[in-house]
């Protein structure tokens, strides 16, 4: 390649990077100044670049369509496998049709055809699962996800209409998305950001956003916004402005090994007891968020703290027993009895 051709290739790369750094676009004169070339050179380079990069032009302003821009990523086999595992988890923990996810898995699979054909095959199968007809097709949800993604990447605010579940009323807000977080437990996606009104940090569940519009108003994420600190004590997505609560659980010996196999929370502490049971402790922002997980252990777990959570589980156990025709008594149980009849009374 000649020196002239090399210089042009380097200039095109600088132009592409420059436009990617300015999602709102730049005037040709500004591009020429930043690259140190004549405006006529910029015009020729834009024509050349548009052959392989989706360029938009508005008057004398030029930018890159981010929705259609193809990023270049080179991955090792193990890095690709990490993405494959993440994709498998996504495929099994979401009920919504997502053509972007399927396309990404298919591209990754094609890239691995030669070095790992079996993984490549399973990436194709994962893509098919994501496209399966049984998946829920929700065009409103996809529009919300795509608009929020665009707003987040370009740091532009959105106007959205959100369903308030308790009242079933829809409220309108201006929102600056700081982060988008999946929530595997609920098979949902949430976005955390600045909501107006009231001018405070809030979280929206995407499935409850009924309409969304991208605004031209930009925003800046405050320097003191620390997502890791915000969600440090969250069980999933619920955080608190107050102090987290200590949750203490006692697990039966027959499930102790299963509890120890997984680190369920970042700040958990597990203590083995002489009888083989486990005492599990963690500081949790909103213990209510743990309820589905606790219920999943059934009678193999006992809530020791906080008291409100313990009493709620006691009430639910009583209600469940009554569903099956058993009526719980509050009188002390005969310690010598081992029958369910004695436990539940009459």
Describe the structure.
It contains twelve helices and twelve strands. The protein is an alpha+beta fold. It has a five-stranded antiparallel sheet, covered by helices on one side. A four-stranded antiparallel sheet has the order 10-11-9-12. Helix 2 packs across helix 3, helix 4 runs parallel beside helix 6 and helix 5 runs antiparallel to helix 6.
Measured between the Cα atoms of the first and last residue, the distance is 91 Å
Q: Strands across the major sheet, in which order? A: 7-6-5-4-8
- Helix/sheet category: alpha+beta
Q: Tally of extended strands?
A: 12
Quaternary structure: single chain
Spell out the helices and strands N to C: HEHHEEHHHHEEEEEHEHEEHEHH
Tally the helices: what do you get? 12
Spans of at least 5 consecutive residues whose pLDDT stays below 50 are 335-346
Mean pLDDT: 88
Helix content: 25-40%
Whole-angstrom Rg: 27 Å
Biggest sheet overview? 5 strands, antiparallel
Strand content: 15-25%
Shape: elongated
What's the helix and strand layout?
Layout: H1 3-20, E1 26-27, H2 28-35, H3 39-49, E2 55-58, E3 61-64, H4 77-92, H5 99-111, H6 117-131, H7 139-154, E4 156-164, E5 169-183, E6 188-196, E7 200-205, E8 209-218, H8 227-230, E9 245-251, H9 253-261, E10 269-272, E11 278-284, H10 291-296, E12 301-305, H11 307-323, H12 340-344
Antiparallel strand pairs: 1-3, 2-3, 4-5, 4-8, 5-6, 6-7, 9-11, 9-12, 10-11
Helix pairs in contact: 1-3, 2-3, 4-6, 5-6
In short:
This protein has 12 helices and 12 strands. It is an alpha+beta fold.
């Amino acid at each position: 390649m000649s020196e002239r051709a090399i210089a042009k290739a380097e200039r095109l790369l600088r132009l592409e990077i420059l436009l990617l750094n300015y999602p709102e676009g730049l005037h040709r004169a500004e591009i020429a100044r930043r690259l140190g070339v004549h405006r006529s050179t910029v015009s020729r380079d834009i024509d050349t670049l548009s052959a392989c990069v989706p360029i938009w032009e508005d008057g004398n302003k030029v930018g890159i369509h981010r929705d259609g821009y193809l990023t270049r990523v080179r991955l090792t086999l193990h890095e690709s496998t990490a993405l494959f595992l993440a994709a498998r988890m996504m495929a099994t923990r979401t009920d919504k049709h997502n053509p972007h996810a399927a396309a990404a898995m298919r591209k990754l699979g094609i890239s691995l055809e030669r070095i790992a054909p079996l993984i490549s095959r399973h990436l194709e199968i994962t893509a098919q699962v994501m496209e399966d007809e049984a998946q829920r097709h929700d065009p409103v949800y996809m529009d919300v996800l795509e608009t929020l993604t665009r707003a987040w990447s370009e740091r532009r605010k959105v106007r959205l209409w959100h369903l308030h579940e308790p009242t079933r009323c829809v409220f309108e807000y201006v929102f600056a998305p700081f982060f988008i977080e999946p929530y595997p437990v609920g098979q949902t996606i949430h976005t955390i950001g600045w909501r107006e009104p009231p001018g405070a940090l809030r979280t929206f569940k995407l499935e409850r956003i009924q309409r969304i519009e991208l605004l031209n108003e930009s925003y800046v994420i405050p320097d003191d916004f620390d997502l890791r600190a915000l969600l440090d004590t969250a069980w999933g997505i619920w955080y608190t402005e107050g102090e987290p609560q200590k949750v203490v659980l006692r697990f039966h010996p027959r499930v102790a090994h299963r509890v120890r196999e997984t680190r369920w929370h970042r700040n958990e502490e597990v203590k083995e007891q002489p009888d083989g049971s486990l005492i599990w402790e963690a500081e949790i922002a909103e213990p209510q968020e743990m309820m589905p997980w606790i219920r999943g252990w059934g009678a193999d777990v006992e809530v020791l703290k906080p008291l409100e959570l313990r009493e709620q589980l006691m009430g639910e156990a009583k209600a469940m027993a009554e569903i099956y025709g058993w009526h719980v008594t509050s009188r002390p149980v005969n310690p010598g009895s081992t029958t369910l009849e004695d436990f539940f009374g009459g």
